[in-house]
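Handout, section B. The chain below has 309 residues.
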Amino acid sequence: MDFLHISVLYLETLDALRIKPDGIYVDCTCGGAGHSRGVLERLGANGRLIAIDQDPEAIEVIKERIGSDPRVTVVHDNFSNLKAILDSLGIDKVDGIMADLGVSSHQLDTAERGFSYNSDAPLDMRMSKEGMSAYDVVNTYSERDLMIILRDYGEEKFASRIARSIVNERQNKSIETTFELAEIIKNAIPAATRRTGGHPAKRSFQAVRIEVNSELRKLQETLDDMFYSLNDGGRLAIITFHSLEDRIVKKAFQSYCKGCECPPSAPVCICGKTPEGKLPFKKKTASPEELKNNVRSRSATLRSVEKIG
């Protein structure tokens, strides 16, 4: 299978993990195995890599590209089940975990997956190809629920108008394709606004995709499992692609690094809280050279945290 995906912040992510030759590492969103290949190049014969992905098409590619390596264990699952995955493999702690939270180029460019407003296809957007689809969200959610999703997940200021237009349109017939939805969104947005800021459906499509895949909820619920699955000195590296994800990651990482919470007026610490982690760097974004070679890297942000004893 041709699974095209250019790994963003490639060297930056590998360097952030500070890979030990005999360590155990987890790629939570292995995709086209780009970052995973880099990990394997730095691992020794006794190292190990757990390659996880929820997309069955990605799993086929992972098995083809790195599955024959005896150091690799391929797991078809969602990274939100990380703790159970490690338990099933008899692994207590690992030395590094990474996750690239972006939609892969393969998913965006495969029209029938229904992720893109640039190709006409059935409304789908399921990364796992299972469960609730974008069609279900668009055609069954109430106007209020649609508005909340578009407002909170897409940061769309015309969320109310778009939600109302979707509900009005589906009273005549079901909204079945990406082009149909994109056209409804475009017509709901004032003409002056449509002429600026890129494609008018971009934020709404992001919002529906996040809802379909429960992306923010799963991230929020799993960050603690990721961090506390690290050995002392182990590192967690996460690449985000929009402010909502980045905000969740930033807040969690800061909480791991926070120490004493006693009021400044307290003469001595009585809370006993000490930092559990430290930040190797604040954040990293794509270099001018990477931006030139891969336009999709423009919104990528890498953050990392190291667990300390």
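Note. The longest strand covers residues 230-240. Compare this with the example in section A.
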